[in-house]
Design a protein that fits this description.
Layout (H helix, E strand, L loop, with lengths): L1 E6 L5 H15 L3 E6 L11 E7 L8 H9 L9 H7 L7 E8 L9 H11 L3 E9 L9 H14 L2
Parallel strand pairs: 1-2, 1-3, 3-4, 4-5
Helix pairs in contact: 1-5
Organism: Cryobacterium arcticum
GO molecular function: FMN binding
Protein name: Putative flavodoxin
C-alpha cells in the first residue's frame, strides 16, 4: 500500500499525529510519505491520501489564524492544506481520509477534518472518513494516548 500524508502544522502537533499515523501504516508494510502542505507534491499513484490540519475557529486555518498562530510562537505558514487542495488536479477516486487536531470535541468545537473532507470530495477523492485527535495546548505535544491512538489507527488502515 502506497500512502501520502499531507499535514499543516504550526506548533508541531498535527505533524506529530501525521508521523504517528505513518508509523502505524509502516508497521504493516505500507510505503508512506509524510509532507508539509506548503511543499507537498500533487498526489500520484497512491492507494491512500491522508490530509490533516489543526482546527482554527471551528474549521481550517485561514491567513488571519495563521498570523495569530505565528504571533503566539508558531512557525510561519504561507500556504496550507486548503491551498494545496485548491491547486492539485482532480483525483480518479483515490481513497482519502481527513484528520485534525482539536482542543476539545463536540459540535461547538468544530472540525478542520470536516472541511478537509468537503474539499477532498470536491476533487473527486473517495473520502472514507475523518478522525480527530485532542491536544491539550499549542505549546505542548499531543498526549501519548492520542499519539498511540493515531499509530493504532494507521496500523488498522493498513490492514
Amino acid at each position: 500500500m502506497k500512502v501520502l500524508i499531507v499535514t499543516e502544522s504550526y506548533f508541531g502537533n498535527t505533524a506529530r499525529v501525521g508521523e504517528a499515523i505513518a508509523a502505524g501504516l509502516h508497521s504493516r508494510g505500507a510505503d508512506v510519505t509524510v509532507v508539509d502542505a506548503a511543499s507537498a507534491p500533487p498526489p500520484g499513484a497512491q492507494d491512500l491520501v491522508m490530509v490533516g490540519a489543526p482546527t482554527h475557529y471551528r474549521g481550517l486555518p485561514s491567513p488571519t489564524s495563521r498570523d495569530q498562530a505565528e504571533t503566539r510562537g508558531g512557525r510561519r505558514v504561507t500556504a496550507g492544506v486548503a491551498e494545496w487542495l485548491e491547486k492539485i488536479p482532480r483525483s480518479a477516486g483515490t481513497h482519502a481520509w481527513a484528520f485534525d487536531t482539536v482542543s476539545s470535541t463536540g459540535f461547538f468545537a468544530g472540525s478542520a477534518a470536516k472541511a478537509i473532507s468537503k474539499l477532498l470530495r470536491g476533487k473527486s477523492f473517495d473520502v472514507v472518513g475523518r478522525m480527530s485527535f485532542v491536544i491539550t495546548g499549542t505549546g505542548t505535544p499531543p498526549p501519548g494516548t492520542e499519539l498511540a491512538r493515531a499509530q493504532q489507527w494507521g496500523a488498522t488502515l493498513a490492514g
